[in-house]
Amino acid sequence: MVEKRTPLPVINAVERVLECALSLGTEKIELEESFGRILAEPIIASSDVPSFDRSPYDGFAIRSVDSVGATGDNRIAFKVIDHIGAGEVSTKKLAAFTAIRIMTGAQLPEGADAVVMFEQSVETEESMTIRKPFKALENVSLQGEDLRKNEVVINSGSYINPGTIALLATFGYSQVLVAKQPFVGILSTGTELLAVNEELEPGKIRNSNGPMIVAQLKRMGIRCKMYGISIDQLDESYEVVKKAATETDCLITTGGVSVGDFDFLPAIYERLGAEVLFNKVAMRPGSVTTVAVANGRYLFGLSGNPSACFTGFELFVRPALLKMMSASKPYLPHTTARLGENFTKANPFTRFVRALYDGKIVSPAGFNKSNAVSSIARGNALIVLPGGTRGYQSGDLVDVLLLGMEEGSDKWKL
Ligand code: AMP
Ligand code: MG
């Protein structure tokens, strides 16, 4: 008899997965290695930024009081008494109607409170003249204008982007405390599967899910081990799953989670004594997506159908891995957009449609069955169409989940 499964709403399923996330602890790594990792300590400003008043331009440091009354007909002259570049500090103090030639980034000399840009001055041999008054602090980059000492600049749990690296470098972190990353195993199940380098045979297909998941992990910067292909045979699959589950923090299997005669993952979970969090989700594709936990480790049973497999990874595996790293934003980025074409196929379950989002309009990315491979490659987003009896019309406002945000864009039409 076919087992009766109760579908769980997607959002509840995601929550249930996240609740089980085990933290992996933290490690200190070199700053240069930290891009893409999750910060495990808040970054606190150890100094003001900038830490001294400085010139944001190449020009002349002056006392603004000396510039009062300057006009085109009444140019005021300043004697240039010193010349400093970035990194140099003048030993001179400005007296009335003197100026110091100063380059971008150099510390403002004592007495100076304004900077005249080169283009605002006319130079002579030993002096320069100006034709307008300067206000106090005009053209000055003030100490602490960017960040204040002791300010919490970035919270723990943040993704380390290139800007975060710049901040860490600014505050002298040559090493940084980050969350340890999960080590993930991938096992593709299915007697029909061939390795990528094998010739097609009748009834067989190449394993596309395995390499796809490696790439999905890679774009999160996460390491993994491929356990290859396992045929649909209970004992054999059980042994591989058992081994893989102990060697990794999280095992992703593809295929074999449905209720077919050769779908052995449910029996394998039972043998392992795993707690099945759910084995049916109210979504298309991938309603058979199953998530279990054994010995504090995740077992993700993704559907073998490529589109379902892809979607299951993005909806469940990705946030779970991020939660294991205590990331403060484990969910996929999302937005809303106008649907670019009608989508009339109604469904009781929430539908995730692989789609192309151009910043304004989102349109299905072609062939959209759960076994589709092409639309995964062509899409950069998932349209979320809540279940119900009605279809959707071109122009409807829909939710969109954004994928692979680190990817580039076509030529700009700004
Ligand atoms: P299953 O989830 O095992 O019922 O498989 C559903 C569909 O996905 C079947 O048509 C399988 O042949 C196909 N499939 C299963 N595993 C893979 C894989 N690793 N790569 C590509 N297609 C697969
Ligand atoms: Mg199968």
Q: How would you describe this protein?
A:
The chain is of the alpha/beta class and 414 residues long. The mean pLDDT is 95. It has helices at residues 10-19, 162-170, 209-218, 234-247, 265-272, 306-324, 374-378; strands spanning 26-30, 43-44, 59-62, 76-84, 98-102, 114-117, 121-123, 127-130, 152-154, 175-179, 184-189, 193-194, 205-206, 224-230, 250-254, 275-278, 283-284, 290-294, 297-302, 334-339, 350-357, 361-364, 381-385, 397-402. The chain contains seven helices and 24 strands. The protein folds into four domains: 10-25 and 181-324, MoaB/Mog-like domain (Molybdenum Cofactor Biosythetic Enzyme, Chain A, 3-Layer(aba) Sandwich); 29-46 and 152-179, Molybdopterin biosynthesis moea protein, domain 2, CATH 3.90.105; 59-130, Molybdopterin biosynthesis moeA protein, domain 3 (Beta Complex); 334-402, MoeA, C-terminal, domain IV (Beta-clip), CATH 2.40.340. Adenosine monophosphate binds at residues 188, 190, 192-193, 205, 207-210, 254-256, 258, 260, 263, 303-306, 371. This is Molybdopterin molybdenumtransferase.
